[in-house]
Design a protein that fits this description.
globular, Glucose Permease (Domain IIA)
Length: 598
């Protein structure tokens, strides 16, 4: 548009070029008198290195202001908006300055027209706005410098024939090309990672990504359960030492073990000595049976069948390009047929010892094809329980060797209590010991069908996701003094099953860190090192089986730390009964607030 205006106005004889901007000192005098002229002159005579002066003037040139003071004001605003954006702007410009000096190019191109803002804008865009800030985005900022330099030099030659400036053309070309390149990568590489949900802040984009890349990685995926009932132990995991190699590395071998860790009773010489032998094997998710192999004899203990190495097997199709395979099943135990539709948790067969299996066990894998023995697929289980010294909940995870696992058993009380319906309003009485007030939270959905809770008193919003096994919050906006914010923190993640003593641990986004000054310092180095942490932990306390109404009590904590040292802690207590959350207690800053359901 600027080029069109410049070319067209040359043909209009009655249009004259304004003298504004030519006699700068006169304009300064008219605006602020002699004092403003002195301030302007003082800025121009500062003994700063030339590179720093040109950097600030290049910032001002973004808004067609070629004064040092304008650049300082813009830099201050940039720091206020985003510390990372300011950092990348400095890195981008400094890299360009050093590159010009290295190749012997004329640095006057930067200092005369101040087109160095192309490097600044590109560094911000590629370093941390369209891309998650990281060491790899930093590398791409450096790689973009020669591209922009060549575009500036060649563009000036071409456009100079028409007496046109290059303006921000190099910035637009390089950013569009790089973002498009990242988007069209045939083989996905984690870094640099494009921003999925734009929060218009490099820091928020980074902190959300660090927390949610694993926590929310299963969203949009079919949730997979463990293919058995009860507790089983992983005897060979991903990239196992025996058979899980190469294209078959993403697989698990499961067995059952007693409290001593033994997988059999007696001397273990008979198939029936093994706890897992003949135990039910179930579908990990809904799907169609696409392949069955049956009729392979079970091996004697310690023997192999390398000819039919997969043994009796079943392949289930869950979606296009997503299958699961269950192998080494007991001969003639398969109770489904090819083409049959099965439900999650439905029994398919029994665990056996067929194929390349010296001891009874269940081999399980995800794969992209429907044939027995196809290459494996790296795919997580949606949720399961880890049984060790402590019982812990795992979401969007993959079991490891020697880990004892089981499926989460959904409890109707919690499942119903956490089933919030759009349009529903939750009414509470909030008592802080001095006064009581009414609070109401309404369940709503946005245009993208994302569900959130809105506080009708403060307007704050907390987005959440509910799945069969788990309820968790994903994002918060609004007043952090609202009790909805404390509800967001204290119920950051809940599960719909109950195991006394079960613990959940999660990381919170650092955007929630209470000390804004310390957080601002962290922002500057966040892509490379993080000395702050915000953690959430929850423990399921007790289940009271009252005949009239069973009750469940839980306690959660939020810890804010610096270099691992706790600087603030908040605790929350909650009670569930009658298929709903009955009470919620907030303990923070030596103050206790209790919310009671009306």
């Amino acid at each position: 548009a600027t080029w069109i205006a410049m070319l067209s106005t040359r043909q209009f004889s009655h249009l004259e070029i304004s003298q504004r901007g030519i006699y700068t000192l006169n304009e300064m005098y008219l605006l602020g008198g002699l004092s403003l002229v002195k301030v302007y002159d003082w800025f121009n005579t500062l003994g700063w290195p030339e590179m720093i002066k040109v950097y600030f003037r290049s910032l001002g040139a973004i808004f067609f202001q070629y004064h040092l003071f304008a650049g300082l004001v813009i830099a201050a605003g940039l720091v206020y908006w985003s510390r990372l954006a300011f950092l990348f702007s400095v890195i981008g410009f400094a890299a360009a300055w050093l590159f010009y000096d290295f190749i012997g190019a004329s640095i006057s191109e930067l200092s005369y027209t101040y087109i160095g803002f192309n490097y600044i804008l590109t560094a911000i865009a590629i370093g941390g706005f369209f891309v998650i800030p990281s060491a790899s985005s930093f590398l791409y900022v450096l790689l973009s410098v020669p591209l922009i330099a060549f575009l500036i030099v060649s563009g000036n030659v071409v456009l100079g024939n028409y007496q046109l400036g290059i303006f921000s053309l190099p910035f637009n070309i390089v950013v569009i090309l790089l973002v498009y390149l990242f988007y069209l990568r045939e083989r996905f590489h984690e870094k640099p990672t494009l921003v999925y949900i734009q929060q218009y802040s490099p820091e928020k984009n980074l902190y959300s990504y660090l927390v949610n890349k694993n926590r929310l990685s299963h969203l949009g995926k079919i949730p997979m359960k463990l293919p058995f009932w009860g507790k089983w132990i992983v005897t060979q995991g991903i990239e196992g030492e025996h058979t899980h190699k190469d294209v078959w590395k993403y697989a698990w071998d499961f067995e059952m073990a007693d409290e001593e860790g033994k997988t059999y009773s007696g001397n273990g010489h008979q198939l029936t000595d093994y706890y897992c032998y003949n135990k039910p094997v179930v579908a990990p998710a809904d799907g169609y049976i696409t392949a069955i192999v049956d009729g392979v004899d079970d091996n004697l203990i310690g023997d192999f069948n390398l000819k039919d190495n997969w043994g009796n097997s079943i392949v289930v199709s869950h979606a296009t390009g997503l299958f699961s395979q269950l192998s080494h099943l007991r001969k003639n135990s398969i109770i489904v047929k090819t083409g049959q539709y099965v439900r999650k948790g439905e029994q398919l067969a029994s665990c056996g010892n067929s194929g390349r299996s010296p001891y009874p066990h269940l081999h399980f894998q995800f794969q992209a094809a429907g044939e027995v023995g196809a290459a494996t697929l790296n795919y997580p289980f949606a949720a399961y329980l880890h049984h060790g010294k402590e019982t812990a909940f795992r979401s969007s995870s993959q079991p490891v060797k020697a880990e004892t696992v089981s499926n989460n058993q959904i409890l109707e009380l919690l499942d119903n209590a956490l089933h919030f319906i759009p349009g529903q309003i939750l009414f509470f009485k909030a008592d802080d010991g001095e006064k009581t007030r009414d609070i109401s939270w309404k369940i709503e959905t946005d245009i993208y069908n994302n569900t959130f809770i809105r506080c009708e008193q403060t307007g704050a919003k907390a987005w959440f996701v509910r799945q069969p096994d788990i309820f968790y919050f994903t994002h918060y906006e609004g007043d952090k003094n609202s009790l909805l914010f404390d509800f967001f923190l204290g119920t950051y993640q809940l599960i719909t099953g109950f195991v006394p003593g079960l613990q959940i641990k999660e990381q919170l986004t650092l955007s929630l860190y209470p000390n804004r000054f310390v957080l601002a310092l962290q922002d500057f180095i966040a892509p490379f090192y993080r000395f702050l942490s915000a953690t959430y932990s929850l423990e399921q306390k007790r289940l009271v089986n009252d005949l009239s109404s069973p009750r469940i009590a839980m306690q959660s904590r939020i810890r804010f730390c610096i270099f691992g040292r706790k600087i603030e802690e908040r605790s929350y207590e909650m009670s569930f009964s009658e298929n709903q959350l009955m009470s919620y207690t907030v303990n923070k800053s030596n103050k206790k607030i209790k919310l009671s359901r009306e």
